[in-house]
Amino acid sequence: MTPSLNSIMSRLHARHLRLLIELDEHRSLLGAASSVGLTQPGASKALQEIETTFGTVLFNRTNRGLEPTAAGHCAIRYARLLQTDIANLRHDLDAILRGVGGRLAVGAIMGAVPLLMKAVSQLASIQPQMSFEIIEDTSQSLLTQIESGRLDIALCRTSVSNTPQLFASTFVQDETLAVIANIDHPLKHAPSLSLADLAESRWIVYRANMPMRVQLEREFHDAGLRFPLHLVETTSILATLSLLQNRPDFVALVSIDVARQCAMNQQVSILPLSMGSVSDPYELVTRKGSQATPAMDTLTELLLLQGRQRCDS
């Protein structure tokens, strides 16, 4: 049985993490020991302590040196993540002490990326020494990363979570959807379209149970149409654009902000189809009880201002 978290936390030290990383680099106790300032017997003892702490063998001793087991590869990966987090901690502390900069990890669902990037660009102008990590993913994945502390803040939806009470959220704006297609789609100049006009098209959609997919299924149901069978499921805008550019019979449902940005760059055409149902709004989400940094407060103000301006326009 894997030891408890309290047991691991009380026995694991920073030098253990360094040793794991160096063992992965050198695949020998002698090389790793030299890199972390230990004797070979000292490194051997430290490795025994690590394996005892985790309750499993992390390296197999072979003629070619030390080979990580499956558990060893897992431990090494997390040791590198922790090293990166500590490096980011050092960077943030240095920025705080100097009164400038800092680091912000932000996320967004695909439809909210244009909105977030505008706010991040403004924040980068206000705080030129600020560093950013930007993640695009599904709401469910972003919420998991917020809960674990990997993300500071994200534009997504808490409605997909089974534990929305873990998060603090602020309404930013409603999401308007649009249907996009190949730049030369034969129906792009039609005065208006109904869903029946596109029922035989090949649809690029999010996977089942995601909010945008649910909304499209509802639209087909309300129109008395069978939902298309032969779908392409992806959350990647690059994959979506590539498919639309290669196949004039493909169409995709995206946020109006994404559609307008792609159309402005002459990558797609926006088809004249109005969606009847309303999508869940974008929310600015943080972990409940977490301490907001000045950068997070500024980003929040910029996003809320954009949301108000869009409502007024």
From TrEMBL:
Residues annotated as domain HTH lysR-type: 15-69
The reply on keyword Transcription regulation is yes
UniProt KW keywords = DNA-binding, Transcription, Transcription regulation
Which GO terms of the cellular component aspect does the record hold? cytosol
Signal peptide: which range, if any? none
State the Gene Ontology terms under molecular function.
DNA binding; DNA-binding transcription factor activity
The entry assigns this protein to a family as follows: Belongs to the LysR transcriptional regulatory family.
Give the protein's recorded name: LysR family transcriptional regulator
